[in-house]
Amino acid sequence: MVPTRQPQYLSVVSFVSVVVLIAAVLITTPLAASAQSSNQSVAVGVSNVTANPQTPTATEPFSLRVTITNYEGSGQTATLNQLVVSADGKQQYVADDLGRLTPGSQTTVTIPVTLNQPGQRTIALELYGSSGDSLINTRTPYTVDVQETQRPSLSVSVPDAVTGASREVNVTVANGGDASIQNVVLRADSPADAVSFDETTRVRGRIAAGETRTFTFPARTTVAGSYPIDLSLTYTENGARQTANETLSVRFAEPANPGRVILSNVETTRRGRTLELSATASNVGGDEVGGVVVSVNGTDAVQPQTYFVGSIDGSGFSSFSLQTRLTGNVSDVPVEVRYVTGGVERSFTTEVSVPVASVPTTPSGNTGAPSLGTPVYLVIALSIAALGGVIYKRRS
C-alpha cells in the first residue's frame, strides 16, 4: 500500500501560515524613535527628560529638560525641525529649528510647562525632523506627579516716594505648605534701566509652615512708572533644594501732592550799594519740606548771601528778608532756593530785578549857596527876623 503524502501538504501550509503571520507582525509593529530610508536608517529620539522641580505644584510653572539624541548606529545626520509639548489636552510649547545632529551627538532643550490639575499627569513630547529622504516623527510620553500642597507664594508692595528717593520694595514670602522650608535665599532685581536696587539678596534660616515673612530691598527709580521685578526664591524642603522664579510688574509711583517750594511776594529795595530782598517761601505741596535755604548767588557785581528758612509744613509759608551788597552795575540778581522733599533735594533759581539807584536832584538857577526855598534856610531866616523884632522892641 502506497503511503499517503497528506502530512507533508499540511506542514507546508503551516509553514506558509507562520511566515505570513510573522510578516504581518513585522509590518504592523512600529519602530519607535527611528525613521526608515531606502538605504540607511536614522535612529533619533528623546533620550532623557527631567523635571525641575521633580514634583511640581498644580497651576505653578516648572521646567522640563529634554535631551534629544541621534544614536551611534544612525547612518545619517538629522535635522530637527520641531519639538511639540502637549499637556492637559492642549499644546503648551513649541521649540523650532533645534539644529542638526550627527550620529552619536545630542542636544538639550529646556521647556516651560504648567499643569493645572494635581495627580499623575502625562506630558507628550513630539519630535519632528528629517534625515535625507526620511522623515522623523516620534512621540515620547513623560509622566510626572503634580502635588496639591501649595509652594511658597511671592508678592510685592512698594510705597509711593519722590522720584530719586530710596524706597522700600517689600517682598512677602508666604509658606502655605504643611512643612517648613529651610536655608531660604530671596533675590530681587529689575532688568529696567530706570530701577536700581541698592541690595539684591536676603537670607533667612527657616520659614515655618503657614508662616509669612516680608523682606525689604532698598531701591530707586529715575522715572515713575510700572517696571518688572525678577524674584528668585531658593529653599530646602524635605531635604530637596527647590527654586521658584517669578517676574511681577510693580508700580513705582510718586505721592499725589509732594512738598514743593515757590517764592511769592518778592520785593527788592535798593539803598546805594545795599540791596534788600523780601519774599515769602511757600510750600504749595501737602507734605512738609525741610532744609529750605534762600541764596543770592555771587557774581562779579553781587556779593553772595544766604538765608536759612528751615522747614515749612505742608501748605505753609515763611516770610524772610536778606541783604547783600552790590559791587557793580546790575539789573537783576540770581536767587536760588534749595529744599528737601521726601528725602530728595530739589532746587530752582529765579532772576530778581534790581531797581535803578536814585540820583539826588540839583536845584535850578544859582548853584552856589542853597536858596531860601530850602526848609533849613527858611527856618534860619525866620529865626533871624524874629530876633531882630525882639531887639527893636526893647530899644523902643
Number of strands: 23
Instruction: Work out the radius of gyration.
Output: 46 Å
Mean pLDDT: 82
**CATH-defined topology of the largest domain:** Immunoglobulin-like
Assigned CATH superfamily of the largest domain: ApaG domain
- Helix/strand order: HEEEEEEEEEEEEEEEEEEEEEEEH
Tell me what the CATH architecture of the largest domain is.
Sandwich
Strand content: over 45%
User: How do the strands of the widest beta sheet line up side by side?
Assistant: 1-2-3-6
End-to-end Cα distance: 214 Å
User: Which class of secondary structure composition applies to the elements?
Assistant: mainly beta
Number of helices: 2
Helicity range of the residues? 10-25%
- The structural domain count equals 3
Give the CATH class of the largest domain: Mainly Beta
Biggest β-sheet description? 4 strands, antiparallel
| Coarse shape | elongated
Provide a descriptive summary of the structure in words:
By secondary structure, the chain is mostly beta strands. It folds into 3 domains: 31-146, Immunoglobulin-like (Sandwich), CATH 2.60.40.1470; 153-252, Immunoglobulins (Immunoglobulin-like), CATH 2.60.40.10; 261-353, Immunoglobulins (Immunoglobulin-like, Sandwich), CATH 2.60.40. Helix content is 11%, strand content 54%. It contains 2 helices and 23 strands. Strands 1-2-3-6 form a 4-stranded antiparallel beta sheet, with no helix packed on it. Strands 5-4-7-8 form a 4-stranded antiparallel beta sheet, with no helix packed on it. Strands 9-10-14-12 form a 4-stranded antiparallel beta sheet, with no helix packed on it. A hairpin with a 2-residue loop joins β15 (225-237) and β16. The longest helix is centred in the first third of the chain and has 23 residues, at 6-28. It is elongated, with a radius of gyration of 46 Å. The N and C termini lie far apart (214 Å). Residues 1-40, 365-374 and 390-396 have low confidence and may be disordered.
